[in-house]
Structures are given as structure tokens and as C-alpha cells.
Amino acid sequence: TTIDPADGTLAYDLDRAHVFHSWSAQAALKPFVIAGALGSTLWDYDGKEYLDFSSQLVNMNIGHQHPKVIQAIKDQADIITMVAPPHANLARGEAAQRILARAGSSFGSVFFTNGGADANENAIRMARLTTGRDKVLSTYRSYHGNTGAAVVATGDWRRVPNEYARGHVHFFGPFLYRSEFWAQTPEEECARALHHLERVIQAEGSSSIAAILLESVPGTAGVLVPPPGYLAGVRELCDKYGILLIFDEVMCGFGRTGEWFAFQGFDVVPDLITFAKGVNSGYVPIGGVVISETIAHEFDTQVFPGGLTYSGHPLAAASIVASMDAMADEGIIDNARMIGTDHLGPGLAELAAAHPLIGEVRGMGVFWALDLVSDPATRAPVSAAVIGELKGELMKRGLLPFAADNRIHVVPPCVITPDEVARALAIYDEAFTAVEAV
Ligand code: PLP
Fold it and tell me: Which NCBIfam families does the entry mention (predicted)?
């Protein structure tokens, strides 16, 4: 299709006149107008191309406009576009079957939601109803969504203006680079973080705690890959105190870490899994909860008091089936793992060695963060102005970045190629050099 720069101007003007944006003061916004995209590349209305190293909101796992997913949505649209939740639908059943086949044998069914926040909302509800307990523990360095319970389960600043849901308690998870526990090694960080969590459980009263809700690999908070043994240790504490374990795989699931589910790289099985984003790369909005057999049976005779008009929407369900099949057939999960091990891991380490602004590189698969510091000794985070300059330099050179706090997250689609990674690494290198020269 041809691109008309006038449409770009119109899109920008309409946005600024009429669209209210998330998490922002509105007046100073200057949104980037995207005209189209394919794979890991997108372009603006002047025809300038950008490598999408944001995957939008870290959700475009299969890449933009995958032909098999687009075709499945079109085919489903020709059959039926909406089926109310009480009825059965083939695409919905197949989507649940595909997800359960990857989740593992202890899981029994899938409850579909509209996205990630309401997946957490419903997982929390299931945990409370199953245990008869109220409290939910989650980490300060987390994001779980923007609905009543999900935003209060969230640990970061977005919780504070929204604290009206009940029974949420926060604790510190492991993060060696900025350790809360005076730790020097991953082993110390792991042992002390688990000790801290056990003390929080005891101090809150273990019999009042329904669930621990954790991102298997916390994403927005900075790609905080847990140290070996931490998730297994949390599982042990849950079992010791009769607490359910919910893994939020909304951002880290479906290939991001090089696994179908991130927890599968850590040899731990939760009771509930929440998902969204990468399950169908957001071609049509959907999320959900994968429910263990045991918890699913709780609701064999007890009514589950929750539902959504668009639960298991056929267009979204069809896109899940096509996306998961394409990921399997085309080795997309394996590609994400290989890119992390052979290209992004070593390439970003080299970048950090060349640029003192980069205090730490951490991640796996296509899920990485550069923790930027003004002083490597004190690890003081860089200012928002430095991040702003870097974003500008990256965009100028044709790379759409993902920035959060003092970090640049390196989060391309799982289909990214070694050649595209090499181009991106060269752009990051030039952009850091330009900012350091100021
Ligand atoms: N959980 C995690 C780990 C997330 O990263 C997000 C979104 O970024 C959510 C939940 C919320 O998902 P949604 O925006 O689809 O409601």
C-alpha cells in the first residue's frame, strides 16, 4: 500500500485533538505516528523505517503482520465473530487446548479474559475463593495491571494513587545489582530474599494469605531474572504455609525468555498462570488464567462468580491457535533463545564494556534491560533527561526503543534475525556515543 504523508499529519492532529493517553499528563505529548509494519520493522508516513526493539508494549512476540495469524483472523471473521461466553465455540476450545498442551500436565482449564490485568484480577479471585483467605503478597518491583486488585498488587508507583482494593501486601524480591539485602553474590541475594519473604509471611499471619503473585521474570521493573533457586524457594514457602502460587506470565510468557512459559526455565510449577500479550501478540486483545486441575475442581460444584462478555472471543481465540501453531512450526521460541544466547547476550555485554553509562546488562532470550548509571561506582540512576536524549538518538537512527525509568529495555520480537540484531547493536553503540559526547 502507498503511504500518504498527509495521512500522517491527519493521524497526529486527530490524536492530539481527541485521544486521551495512558499514564501521562496530556499537554506535552508528541506521539510517534506509525503507518505500517512487517516482522520486526515498522515505518512512519514519510516511509522511514525503524527496527521495533520495543515489540510495542513487549507484546509483539511473533512480529508484526504475521500472514498466518492475519489469515486466521480473516477466516474466523467469515465464520462467526462473536459467541457469548456460555456457548461453546471451536476456536475458543482449540485455543484453550493449545495453551494447556504447553503449560504442563498439572493444569486443567483456561479462563479467558480481555487482557493481562483482568487475568490477574480473576486469578486473585480464584485464589481467595479456593483458600478462604484474603491477603495477596506481591513484590514492590512489579506491574500487574490497571484494574482494582491488579493495580494494588502492582508494586511500582502506579499502585499508590489507586490503593482501594483490599488485602495487598508487598515485599522485596531479589535484585542483586540494587540489593535490598546487602548481598554480594546471587546465592546471598537468593537466601536473604527468601528469608525476608518468610518473615513477611509470618508477620502477616500465614493463615491470612491466599496467594503469592509474582512475575516469573519481572519485566517493566527491569527484567529482573531471579537467581537460581529463588522461585523454587518461593514454591517451598507456599507449600509450607498452604499459600497458592500465581505466576504472572503476561510479559515474560510465550517466547520472550526463550521458553513457552518463563517458569519452565526455572523448574517450578505454579498453581495459576496469568497470560496475555505474547499469546497472540495482541493482534486481537485477549488474556487469561491457566488453572491447575486441583483449583479447577474447586469450581465443579461451587459457582465461579466472574465473567466477561468477550471471554474467549472467537477472533482472538483463532489468532491464538494460529500464532501458537506458527511459533511451533517456525521454531520461533527456539529462535528467541538462540538470539539471547548467541547474539543479544554477547552483543550487549560488548556494548556495556564500551559505554560507562551502562551499569548492568541483564536478561535472557529477547528480554533484556540496560540499567543506566551516571556513576558506575555508586550505581546512581541516570536522569530522565539522559533517557530522553538516548531515545531521540535511537529514533533518529531508525530504532524504536522501550524505555522505563533509568533503563532501556532491549525487547525485539521473537522472530528477530541475527542480521537485525547486528544492525540494532550498531545503532545502540552510535546512540550511546552521541549521548556520551554531550
Ligand atoms: N502483568 C504484567 C507482567 C504486565 O507486564 C502487564 C502489562 O504490561 C500486565 C500484567 C497488564 O496487562 P494488560 O495491560 O493487558 O492489562
Answer: PRK06062.1
